[in-house]
């Protein structure tokens, strides 16, 4: 997962930028002063918090808002939504990027902290609102094509942002249908401005300008007739004007033209495409597979040499090709035209589509967006290439919390998803992050049967270690870790540090800290970079270095803050360490509680139990009444853990201080050496075998095993099996 860092080329940056850049207004723009004035009035009204521009395709929503922003010089972030933004993590990442173009430093201050799709985005939204509060100037966020998102989690997040943000912030939503926001509540409170299909209809004076700028120069009665037949629908007027300019009998054309959706569809497919030169028609159909177009991409897909020039010529004469940047590099088809082109492509060049997608995938793989490359390879049927890219890019999606996107891509592979070792490992991590340990174990077992190469073996080991730790089984995690050689992946190195930390093997864990930091830096893995000092802090605290522990925890939080990760589970225990080492009561309690709250989101049982125990210790020290409740929560978790390692010891110590359990014996050394038979039994105690199972393995009676266990506990100075396992590790007996 922690693959080679991809260098961002100029093409990549430009392509990503098209999602967060307002479309370029058409050369033959018709200014619509009445609507632009309404938008300006709404933005200028501190009571208006949301502007909804809702109308069918082809009504001119995007053109209106983009032209208004351009003319009014409003500080606005623009997010061009697509279906992939259904993933909340992806949506908020792009929303922050869009606003970050207007608010310097925003991306660092409030970078997405959503740890996974469907997770709570409130911490991010609260920080975003706070940052907007500090910005004196009005700020607007435009989300175009909001209907493509259709996710309640995104809707709820948007509503919370509107509620928390200052009056200087305004949200503009463009959508073909009303967004699933609580518009009635906003409407009643006077916080909503609505521009709808009736408002967007072209009046005859506006239509005359639109048609005249296409070269048709119709007479007033012709304009009136076209307005009536199209009901002022922008797309219908544009299409009518394109043909009217070439018509020898304008009156006859106007009399015959109809502007309803079905007839416009027929018009585009039967008249518009049929009337184009064959070369242009072929290019339009072949490039209909693309969400966004540039000259080099068109050249790769169509195997031509003048893609850039063709796009610029087309944009100059056709308002259905929309510019996406200010230098005329990237474009997209009007959604209505794109839909119709794709239908026609399915009918007329269906046999070519797979190869066209394959070419587009190859171009994006080498020059553009890996995510677009994956989608094109999936559509081409080249699932092997898609699977390789999914594996290569999984680390970036996992780090940014785009789990829904990753799941959708893997599902798109069909049967290959369970036959490609890389995607089975990724599926295992996805299941692990979602807390579905049986599914994670299934993916791990499947990956191992597929014969992974050396790099994949290291990641399967890391997955196995994490699954064992998530189950609270330090012994099994250690057994898996011993099969790992020198780590070459940041995630792999971190897994080895964690398991040795929880096992109390602090010297070995500390020896890997530098390795993990170096790999995280080389591979751009910010999550590992922020996690390594957390491990260092725990090691320091457990070995008596409270001051060193606090410094390491503060460094972890500094790294996390710089990357927008300080509200994630990765640094939960850094907050816990701050709580345990602070001499300021308020800071101590707040930090310990913060650590427990963040840890509650992780699938790692030992992390949750450690954070809860830390919180219990701290709040009890400062006479807060809920310490016992926090301890009960920690005990509930650890009672389900086969081998909790040092976390079990820590919990026992805190329980003893609070009188929940008797104090553990103070035994710096063995009370008495173990016999050979006792050693034989001890080796089985870290496993999940029952006493009866151990008796069967050793060919002795159940009573004999029980007798040996009692002797082991006495000699190690402990009272139960889990404590015996960790004490044996501490004495180097395991």
End-to-end C-alpha gap: 32 Å
Which homologous superfamily in CATH is the superfamily of the largest domain? Tetratricopeptide repeat domain
Structural class: mainly alpha
| Strand arrangement, major sheet | 2-3-4-1-5
CATH class division of the largest domain: Mainly Alpha
Number of domains: 5
On the 0 to 100 scale, the average pLDDT is 83
Radius of gyration: 31 Å
Number of helices: 40
Largest sheet, if any?
Answer: 5 strands, parallel
The amount of beta strand, in percent, is 5-15%
Can you give a write-up of this model?
With 734 residues, this protein is mainly alpha-helical. The chain folds into five domains: 31-200, P-loop containing nucleotide triphosphate hydrolases (Rossmann fold); 204-272, no CATH class; 396-452, no CATH class; 462-657, Alpha Horseshoe (Serine Threonine Protein Phosphatase 5, Tetratricopeptide repeat), CATH 1.25.40.10; 676-730, Winged helix-like DNA-binding domain superfamily/Winged helix DNA-binding domain (Arc Repressor Mutant, subunit A, Orthogonal Bundle). A five-stranded parallel beta sheet has the order 2-3-4-1-5, with helices on both faces. A hairpin with a 6-residue loop joins strand 7 (321-323) and strand 8 (330-333). Helix 19 packs antiparallel against helix 20, helix 27 runs parallel beside helix 30 and helix 37 crosses helix 39. The longest helix has 18 residues, at 350-367. The protein is elongated, with a radius of gyration of 31 Å.
